[in-house]
Design goal:
Strand order of the largest sheet: 3-2-1-4-5-7-6
CATH class of one domain: Alpha Beta
Shape: globular
CATH architecture of one domain: 3-Layer(aba) Sandwich
CATH topology of one domain: Rossmann fold
Helix content: 40-55%
Number of strands: 7
Largest sheet: 7 strands, mixed
Mean pLDDT: 89
Order of helices and strands: HHHHEHEHHEEHEHHHEE
Strand content: 15-25%
C-alpha cells in the first residue's frame, strides 16, 4: 500500500493554520462548500460545458503515465469524482491509484463510479492538497486536474505534489489558462463569464456560483511561463507546458530529480 503519513493525516483536522485565499479569492472552507453543493451535477456539467473536451484533456495527461510498472501508485490530488483516476487506469491498467479530495461529497461518487464501470485498483479518500496524508517518495507519480488553481497556497501545493513522488517520478498538472490572442482570448473569457454561469444555473441552481467563480479564478491564476518557473523553483526538472485546445488548458509535466 502507498505510504500513509500519520503526521500529515492528523494535520488535516488542525485548526491552527491561518485562513488562506486562492487565486479566485476563496478560502478553503468556501471552496469545499461550493464543490459540495455542485457534486451531484458536477460530472454532467463538466462534460456538457466543455463540449466533451475534458475527456480529451484527461486522456492527454494519462499518456504521461505510460511506462510505469504494474502495481505502481499514482497519487491523484483534488480528484473530484475520480475522472483522472479512471483515465489513468484505462491507459495503464496495472496502475494503482490513490484518489484524494478534501470535499467528502465529491469523493463519495468515486466508488460508485468505479463499481458501475467495473474498475478496480482505485482507492478513494479524503485529503487536503496542502497537507497530503502520504509519506515522502511513496508514489511513482502525482497528478492534479483543474484543482491546483483552487488551493490557497500554490507553492505549497506544488511542493506537496513533488514531496510524495519518488525520485525520477513525474508531477502532472492540468489546468485552465487565460488564452492569448486579441480575438479568441476575449471571446473565450466572455463565454466563461457570461454563458457558462447561466447555463449551469439553469441545469443546477446551486452550480451558478461555482461557474461564476471559474472565469475570475482563471484570470487571476498563473500563466504557463509562471507555472513553469514555479515548478522549476521547487526542484522539478525538464518542466514542459503543453498547450491544449488553443491554449485554454495547459498540461504541465515535471520530473523529480534523482
Amino acid at each position: 500500500m502507498i505510504g500513509m503519513s500519520t503526521a500529515a493525516s492528523s494535520s488535516l483536522t488542525s485548526s491552527a493554520a491561518p485562513e488562506l485565499r486562492n487565486a479566485g479569492g476563496k478560502s478553503p472552507a468556501e471552496v469545499r462548500e461550493m464543490f459540495g453543493r455542485v457534486a451531484r451535477r458536477y460530472d454532467f456539467l463538466n462534460h456538457l460545458l466543455s463540449l466533451g473536451l475534458d475527456f480529451t484533456w484527461r486522456r492527454r495527461l494519462a499518456r504521461e503515465l505510460e511506462g510505469l510498472e504494474s502495481g505502481a501508485w499514482l497519487a491523484d490530488i483534488c480528484t473530484g469524482t475520480g475522472d483522472v483516476a479512471f483515465a489513468a487506469k484505462k491507459r495503464v491498467p496495472g496502475l494503482r491509484v490513490l484518489a484524494l479530495d478534501f470535499t467528502p461529497e465529491m469523493v463519495a461518487y468515486g466508488p460508485r463510479k468505479a463499481a458501475r464501470k467495473g474498475v478496480g485498483g482505485i482507492v478513494f479518500g479524503i485529503g487536503d492538497a496542502l497537507r497530503l496524508p502520504l509519506s515522502d517518495a511513496s508514489a511513482a507519480a502525482s497528478s492534479v486536474s483543474f484543482g491546483i488553481r483552487n488551493v490557497g497556497d500554490l507553492e505549497r501545493g506544488l511542493r506537496e505534489l513533488a514531496r510524495v513522488v519518488r525520485p525520477g517520478g513525474k508531477v502532472l498538472v492540468l489546468e485552465f489558462t487565460k488564452p492569448c490572442g486579441r480575438m479568441f482570448g476575449p471571446l473565450y473569457m466572455g463565454y466563461l463569464k457570461y454563458v457558462l454561469p447561466v447555463v449551469a444555473k439553469l441545469i443546477a441552481f446551486a452550480a451558478g456560483d461555482a461557474y461564476r467563480y471559474l472565469p475570475s479564478s482563471i484570470q487571476a491564476f498563473a500563466g504557463p511561463e509562471e507555472m513553469k518557473q514555479r515548478m522549476e523553483a521547487i526542484g522539478l526538472k525538464d518542466v514542459q507546458a503543453v498547450p491544449l485546445t488553443f491554449g485554454t488548458v495547459h498540461l504541465y509535466v515535471g520530473s523529480k530529480a534523482n
